[in-house]
Structure formats: structure tokens, C-alpha cells
């Protein structure tokens, strides 16, 4: 397939998508080799800061592909313009489908409020920002050496999910002093008395009291460490904040995966049906490709206990458009994330049609649990809480600089991988440069304290 033919189809599909009700920023399409596609998928961006952990992810993806468990057709990055990378090995049918799929993503990211909020804070030009961060890391390596920079990245990337999306990306430090306590004036006499000038000769104002750090449990560990690590150098702080900025960019992709992939799949199917300019054979091949994308089970199995977000989201959007109309679907696309989407629109009827159920698996035996719809919703959504990470918060900094962390296991029911937790504490302690303690619970529910060093 020549580049001219492909670009001709891109323009015609874009025009069809716009006529059908989609609104999106321009998308720059580029065909790239499969190896580069895999690098983009592993790093999360076309150019990103270097770190050994990405190499580990690359090897995993390579093994998955060689075993036939995954294939990358496209990688898309929201923005203005958006960027879409298509595998150069795709055929005409695959690229027609992928183009329509990408435009569904582009419409979603432009109009969804969570995407809008994060893009306003980070940038609509994340690809360029990430390239700037990579240059910043390279300059730090030249100035301070690979070993020191890698130690900072070890800690920052180990904490990359530990942000607080409810806070602004650009946060101010905590107030230095605590607010003075005010006596309650609960009747007119006390209110008038409290308003009087102090008597002559009375003691002067009380000395200001320094506020505790943090003044409340802090979930945004990347921000907290960057701001309050006792001896962190400015270049180390900049790396932490760069990782945090990229995490703010990735969060909406994570938090709307079912919606977003389902929306893109719904629209690539719809646009394919309406694109009368596509050759018949290409259309048939594209429909086969669509079936592979949204199938509920793996290609080599008729039983799947995992959840395919493409399949679930596609079926939910089809039902919403069928029962509520396109305008309602467009409003839901703008307002919801996966939590609201699943809880509000995965009905008992649709769950039964899709044969979704809760199950337990012990000793190789699978047992279907009670058909509780709310419980099914929570099983689907459980991996999404707190960006997929256990809820760990900065609780207190002692006078000697010791950092106390606490794992709030009651909030989302997640346990800790103790081996991984100890490694993360070691990474963090190298940057905090004071002891770091983490309080959690063991399997018996008893308090357990991990420490570094």
C-alpha cells in the first residue's frame, strides 16, 4: 500500500467522522517499523527518559509477541495535534480500521473532562515535553554521572503511580506556620468580648507555631519528596517533578481505559459500515480485524477469566446508543470516567448477556459467586483505584528527618508485595537521605513496620 493511498483514506475517514458527529484535534499519522512501535508502547511516549526498567518491559512485550499473545496495530497520543503511530507492516484493511479507531480516541480525549483537565495542567504537546525531559536527563547524566541519575530515576519511577490527581499539578508548599487556634464564640456576649482590644500591659502575641510536615496524610509522594527531602539537590527535584508531570498525563488514559477503548472500537465499527468508498475486500478484512479486537475471549481459547476492555466498552457503548441515543452517549463520553461509566451503565441485563460474573479460583477449581451487580462492578473497578497502586501516604517527618509512611489498606483492600516494598523503600531512602519507615499490616492483620536502612 503506497503512502499516497493511505493518506487519501485518512482524509476521507476524517471527513466522514466529522460528519458523523465526532470532534477532534488534528492527528498526525505516521507509519513506523514494528520494533519502534514496541519501543513506543513500552516507554509510553516516542521519546522518554532512559531507565533500565523500560528494557525489562521491552523484553516482556517481545516475549508476549513471540508467543502470539499481543500485536500492536497503533499507538496514539492525545494532544493538539494528536500523534498516531501505525505499524508499517499493517495492510490496507488494518490501517483503515486503525485510522477510524484513532479518530475515536482523538474525539474522546478532546471532549472528556478528565482528559481536558490534565492536558490543561500538563500540556497539549506532551510528546515535545517528554523529549525535553529526556534531554534534561541526558544533561544530568553528563553533569553528575549515570550512577547518581539512575538512583534518582529508580526512586521516582518506583513512585510514579503515587500522585494525587485531585490536587493541581502546580502546587504550593504547605504553610510554614500553623493557624492560631480561635476560641469559639457561641453567644453574643462572648463574641463582643472576643472582639475587644487586649487590656494594657497584656502579654504580646504568642510566638508562631511551626506547622507539622505534612499537616495531613499526603498521597502525592512524588511531589512531597521533591519538596521536602532534607538534602535533595535541585536537579534531583527536577527529575521527580518531570516524572510526576508525565504521570499526570498518563492518568486519564488509565482511568478511562474501558470507556476510551470501547468508544474508539464503537466508532471504528460504525465508520467502517458507513465508509462506502472503501474497497469491498478491504472492508471484509477490516471487519475480521474488528472481531479480533473486540472478541471477549483469547484467540486460542473459548474460556476467558480476564476482562477485555475493548469488548466490554464496545458492548456498553452500543447499548447506550441503542437505548439512549447518540446525544446521550456524547454527554456520557464528556462527563464520566470508568468508575461512573461501569457503575451507571453496566446493567444486570447487559452483564448477563456478556456472561460477566464474579468467581473464586482455588486448587484449580473455579466457582461462580453470587450474581451481585454492585459487587461485580467493584471487582471490575478494583484494579483502578489510586492509579492501580496501594494507598501509601506520607504521615509524618520526625525532628531527626525520619520519614514515616503509612499504608491505608482499609481504603482499597490492597495488600503490599513486601519484597517490592523493601526495594522501593531502599530507592527512596537514598534520595531522602534519612531513615524511611513504612507501617502496613501482614496477612494476619497485624501491624508490620518496614524500614530503610
SS element count, helices: 19
Tell me the distance between the termini. Answer: 59 Å
Shape: globular
Q: Quickly count the domains.
A: 2
Question: What is the structure about, briefly put?
Answer:
The chain is of the alpha/beta class.
Notable traits:
single chain; 453 residues; alpha/beta; 2 domains; 4-stranded mixed beta sheet; 3-stranded mixed beta sheet; 9 strands; 53% helix; globular
Structure description:
This protein has 2 domains: 3-112 and 256-383, no CATH class; 126-158 and 214-253 and 390-452, no CATH class. Helix content is 53%, strand content 10%. It is globular, with a radius of gyration of 26 Å. The chain contains 19 helices and 9 strands. It has a 4-stranded mixed sheet. The protein starts with a helix and ends with a strand. The chain is α/β, with parallel strands linked by helices and 453 residues long. The chain has helices at residues 3-19, 34-43, 52-66, 92-111, 113-121, 126-144, 146-158, 188-195, 221-228, 234-255, 257-274, 280-293, 309-324, 326-335, 338-345, 348-353, 373-381, 409-412, 418-432, and strands at 27-32, 74-77, 82-87, 359-362, 365-368, 392-397, 403-407, 436-441, 447-452.
Amino acid at each position: 500500500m503506497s503512502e499516497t493511498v493511505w493518506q487519501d483514506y485518512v482524509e476521507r475517514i476524517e471527513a466522514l467522522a466529522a460528519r458523523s458527529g465526532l470532534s477532534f484535534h488534528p492527528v498526525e499519522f505516521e507509519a513506523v517499523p514494528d520494533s519502534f512501535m514496541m519501543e513506543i508502547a513500552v516507554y509510553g511516549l516516542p521519546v522518554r527518559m532512559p531507565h533500565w526498567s523500560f528494557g525489562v518491559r521491552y523484553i516482556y512485550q517481545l516475549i508476549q509477541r513471540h508467543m502470539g499473545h499481543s500485536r500492536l496495530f497503533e499507538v496514539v497520543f492525545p494532544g493538539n495535534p494528536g500523534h498516531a503511530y501505525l505499524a508499517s507492516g499493517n495492510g490496507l484493511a488494518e490501517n483503515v480500521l486503525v485510522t477510524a479507531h484513532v479518530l475515536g480516541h482523538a474525539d474522546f480525549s478532546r471532549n472528556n473532562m478528565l482528559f481536558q483537565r490534565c492536558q490543561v495542567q500538563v500540556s497539549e504537546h506532551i510528546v515535545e515535553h517528554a523529549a525535553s525531559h529526556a534531554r534534561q536527563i541526558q544533561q544530568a547524566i553528563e553533569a553528575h554521572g549515570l550512577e547518581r541519575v539512575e538512583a534518582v530515576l529508580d526512586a521516582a519511577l518506583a513512585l510514579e503511580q503515587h500522585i494525587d490527581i485531585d490536587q493541581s499539578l502546580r502546587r504550593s508548599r504547605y504553610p510554614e506556620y500553623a493557624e492560631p487556634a480561635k476560641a469559639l464564640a457561641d453567644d453574643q456576649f462572648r463574641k463582643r468580648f472576643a472582639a475587644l482590644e487586649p487590656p494594657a500591659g497584656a502579654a504580646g502575641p504568642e510566638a508562631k507555631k511551626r506547622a507539622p510536615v505534612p499537616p495531613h496524610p499526603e498521597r502525592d509522594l512524588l511531589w512531597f519528596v521533591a519538596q521536602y527531602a532534607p538534602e535533595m539537590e535541585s536537579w534531583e527535584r527536577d527529575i521527580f517533578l518531570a516524572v510526576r508531570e508525565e504521570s499526570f498525563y498518563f492518568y486519564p488514559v488509565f482511568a478511562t481505559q474501558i470507556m476510551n477503548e470501547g468508544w474508539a472500537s464503537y466508532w471504528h465499527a460504525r465508520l467502517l459500515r458507513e465508509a462506502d468508498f472503501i474497497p469491498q475486500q478491504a472492508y471484509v478484512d477490516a471487519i475480521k480485524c474488528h472481531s479480533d479486537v473486540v472478541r471477549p475471549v483469547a484467540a486460542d481459547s473459548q474460556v476467558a477469566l480476564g476482562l477485555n476492555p475493548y469488548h466490554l466498552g464496545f458492548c456498553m457503548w452500543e447499548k447506550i446508543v441503542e437505548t439512549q441515543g447518540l446525544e446521550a452517549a456524547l454527554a456520557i463520553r464528556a462527563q464520566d470516567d470508568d468508575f461512573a461509566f461501569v457503575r451507571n451503565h453496566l446493567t444486570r441485563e447487559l452483564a448477563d448477556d456478556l456472561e460477566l460474573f464474579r468467581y473464586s479460583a482455588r486448587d484449580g477449581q473455579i466457582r461462580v459467586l453470587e450474581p451481585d451487580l454492585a459487587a461485580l462492578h467493584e471487582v471490575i473497578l478494583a484494579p483502578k483505584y489510586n492509579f492501580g497502586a496501594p494507598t501509601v501516604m506520607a504521615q509524618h517527618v520526625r525532628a531527626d528527618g525520619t520519614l514515616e509512611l503509612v499504608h491505608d489498606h482499609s481504603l482499597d483492600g490492597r495488600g503490599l508485595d513486601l519484597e517490592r516494598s523493601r526495594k522501593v523503600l531502599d530507592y527512596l531512602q537514598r534520595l531522602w537521605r534519612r531513615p524511611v519507615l513504612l507501617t502496613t499490616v501482614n496477612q494476619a492483620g497485624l501491624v508490620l513496620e518496614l524500614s530503610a536502612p
